[in-house]
Amino acid sequence: MEVVSTVAELRARVSGWKRAGESVGLVPTMGALHAGHMSLATASRGECARTVLTIFVNPTQFAPHEDLTRYPRPLERDLDLCQREGVDLVFTPAVEEVYPPGDSTFVEVTGITKNWEGELRPSHFRGVATVVTKLFLMALPDRAYFGQKDFQQQAVIRRMTRDLHLPLEIVTCPIVRDADGLALSSRNVYLSPGDRQAGLCLPRSLKHVEELWRNGERDPARLTRELRSVLAAEPRMSLNYGVLVDPMTLEEATTPRNELVALVAGRVGQTRVLDNTWLRMSASDHQGGN
C-alpha cells in the first residue's frame, strides 16, 4: 500500500494503472475509519482492479458551530486498517492541496438538498458536492463507493454526477451496524453509554416500520406516525426529523407507492445520529402474494 498527499502523485499512480488497463475504485472518507468504511473498500476491491481510499476532513461541509476541530483523526490506525483491507493507495491531502489559496469555486446541487440535512445544515451539501467533485477529478475513478447510512448525501452525489456528466458509476453500499443495531459512524465515539442506549431508538423505529411494510402497510401518513411514536418514547432523543420520502426526489411521501425511504435523525447528548431504511416491494408483492 502506498500513501500520497499530492494530486500529482495521485494522478501519476492512477494514470499508470489505467494505461495498464486496470479499473479504479474510489472510497472517499473523512477518516476515523470503521467497519462501514471498510465494507466500501471491500466492495471496491471486489469490482475494481485497484482501490484508492481518500482521508480528508473537509472543512467546507462543517458550519462554524459544528465539530471540525474535534473531529477524530486517528491517521496511523486508519492506515493500518487500509493496509489490512488491501487498499492499493491512500490519498491524504492537506487542506491547501484540495483548496488552493484563493480558491473560489463551489458545486451546488439544488432541489434535492433543500430538506432534511440540507435544511438543518444549509452549507453542508455545497461543501460535500464541491469536495467530492474535486476528488473525482483528481482520481478519475471508474466507480466511487458511498454508504447508504448517509442516504441524502449519496442521493445528492448521484444527482451531481448525472447532471455534470461525470464519467463514473456511483455505488451505494448497505448500512453496517454494530451488534446492538446502531448504524456505524465515526461520531459514535462521542456517545456516552447512556447516549448510545438512547440512540438505539433510531434503528428500533426503523424496524417497526419495516415490519408494518412487510405486513402490507403502504400509507405514508400511518407509517410516519408509527415511526415517530417509537422515537417519541425516548426522552433523551431530540428529534430533528422522522419522515417517509421518495427515494429519488427525497420529497416527503403523501401517497402510497412501491418504494419509500424512512429517514430519521436527531441528537442525543452532544452528538447527532442518523439512520434510514429503504422500503421496497418484494417479488411476491408484485405477484399478488402479499
What is shown here, in short?
This protein is an alpha/beta fold and 290 residues long. It has helices at 7-19, 35-47, 75-85, 95-98, 117-120, 124-139, 151-163, 193-199, 201-214, 220-232, 283-286; strands at residues 2-4, 24-29, 50-55, 89-91, 143-147, 169-173, 238-245, 259-268, 271-280.
Features:
single chain; alpha/beta; Pantoate--beta-alanine Ligase, Chain: A,domain 2; 2 domains; 6-stranded parallel beta sheet; 3-stranded antiparallel beta sheet; 9 strands
Which parts are unreliable, with pLDDT below 50 for 5 consecutive residues or more? 286-290
Provide the gyration radius in Å. 20 Å
Q: Helicity level, as a percent range?
A: 25-40%
Strand order of the largest sheet: 1-4-3-2-5-6
Number of strands: 9
CATH C-level of the largest domain: Alpha Beta
Strand percentage lies at 15-25%
Structural class call reads: alpha/beta
Tally of DSSP helical segments: 11
**N-to-C SSE string, H for helix and E for strand:** EHEHEHEHHHEHEHHHEEEH
Average pLDDT, all residues: 95
Which second-level CATH architecture of the largest domain applies? 3-Layer(aba) Sandwich
From the N-terminal CA to the C-terminal CA, the straight-line distance is 50 Å
| CATH third-tier fold name of the largest domain | Rossmann fold
Biggest beta sheet attributes: 6 strands, parallel
As for the number of domains, it is 2
Q: How does the overall form come out from the CA principal axes? A: globular
Instruction: Write out the CATH superfamily name of the largest domain.
Output: HUPs
